[in-house]
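hi! just following up on the protien thing from before. the input was this:
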Amino acid sequence: MEKKQFNILIKEKFKNINLIAVSNREPVVHEYSGKKIVSNRSVGGLTIALEPIMRNLNGTWIAYGGGSADKAVIDKNNKIKLPPGEESYSLKRLFLSKEEINGYYYGYANSVLWPLSHIVYKQPEFNSKNFEIYKNVNKKFADSVIEEIKSIAANNNGLQDETDNIIWLQDYHLSLAAKYIKEYDESLKIAIFWHIPWPNPEVFSICPEKKEILEGLLSNDLIGFHILYHCQNFLKACEWELEAQVNWADYSVTYKGHKTIINPFPISIDARSIYDFSTNIDVNSEEFNELKEVIEPSYQYLALSVDRIDYTKGIKEKLMAIDLFLEKYPEYIGKFVFLQLGVPSRMHITAYKEYYDEINSLTEQINWKYKNDDWHPIILFLKQLDLKSYIYFYKTAAIVIVSPLHDGMNLVAKEFVMSDTNYGGMLVLSKFTGSAKELSDAVLINPYNIECFADSIKQAIELEPEEKKQRITKMQNIILDNDIFDWAYNFLSKLKTI
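and the predicted 3d structure came back as:
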């Protein structure tokens, strides 16, 4: 859907919409660089997906401000207009103490809900104190939303107009927020999009706080997941854990008199914008000389991955597959280089630090095994880059490997496909991502099956140019037919009907 069409359809549907999006992560982080303040785009699928929607709807985005200069750039209402030079939406920041960050973010959200939702056999670390902090921070986010609603009402002098106030919560950090907002005003329309998988009911049943999590989520009017399977898992959890009326005919749950709709909405990217941007990039330009130096060994075939350093992303299994690929197909030694781009994350959590160390150790072992005087097979470049830099690497790669062990959607896969405007690359994609449901023309893999994974790397490299073009073209058309504006319109339109 084109941006203009999205705007027309939204205006027809809502006439006026006041969208309040709420997430843990902010779209832009302000940091001090000496005495200068610089702004950096946040990493992650959520912010990549939501930011163009906020630009087009001129909404308010409430998020945690974690940058060293975040307080320095906001006004008395904790707001800043974004993006610079366009100022199309407001970012409203709230701030958390170290204790809150440790308990809510590292402690409960990412040591309980994250491993619980991703079936990668990492045991959650349950801690009742962290859950209490998680609850209090959810209430803090809810209070910020309520403050915004009151401000809107005051500016309207209490008069009711045809403006739709929509509160759109984002992800597992905010599973309880809707309950607190509804306690203030049960007539407010609230929805949440859950960006990660929802586990099967057997896995979810081990959570000590399962009932409170479900009750918090069922305070929303609409819950969105990426795929139907996650919706089904959620409905089964409600059947198992609550005295709730689950209606499989319309995918709804009625609990304590309140009805919640549960639907799949596969998230996407601003496909047309990325395609057009990529088309105009000349990878031979001198502006990319610094990036060219990142890949020190000479190569004929470049394999690329872009991941946060996270145990759900299958980086270790990917390195093992590359090791076996070079062992089975030694003709690629000296010709093949794998570049892992990424950003270390959640290093305060022991499991993440240990995983980071494992990846570095495994990389050293594989490089030592195969390297010669002027070549080694694996490069780890763990530094945040801008979109243009990522697209440069997408356009120069022979294959892009997206191999999570479990993922809600994974937008890197879609970004690469839309960036491959020269049709020179191919996508190797885990079957356990939401994007695999749409991008079936990729070379699909089971990342746990290392031997088949290694063979698939060879298959993807050796595909004939015409077949690559046909596959990429088909996937591009699928993404264009369901881009980020389709996702937002479908979600908001469904909420409008409730």
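The mean pLDDT is 94.
The longest helix spans residues 128-155.
cheers
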